[in-house]
Design goal:
By secondary structure, this protein is mainly beta. The chain contains one helix and eleven strands; from the N terminus they run αβββββββββββ. Strands 2, 3, 5, 6, 8 and 10 form a six-stranded antiparallel sheet that branches. A five-stranded antiparallel sheet has the order 1-11-4-9-7.
Length: 137
Amino acid sequence: MAKTVYSHNLAVAALPYAVRSSNEATNGTTVDLALYKNNFRSVMFVVNAHTVSDGTHTVTVEESANNSDWTAVPAARVQGSLPAIGGDDDNTVHSFGVVPNQRYVRIVVTDADSSSGGAISAVAVIGAGSDNPANRS
């Protein structure tokens, strides 16, 4: 099989679509890097800013060995920039990479200074796994 983005990576949910206006942090969906026994070692998060009325929606990334105790991923293992999404970011796509040291990763969106908020969603593209092509079930 040819080495393609599809054959060597999986896209999984990272943050369900919702309008975020709570002025607090929202944890994304846990991404399991051992999904289908692939032992993935790299993640690219693709964050979609839909309609953003107000506020700042700052994205950070965390990792965990047990899907319970979470710590921030150090900046040295983040590729690109973590987005801070504001009112000028309607219908934009932001992406950044992570080289995690733990089995689980997630993004966290912290919403500040919003009343109407902003609609944001995300997917994670996980890759660099031990199986080529990637197992899909």
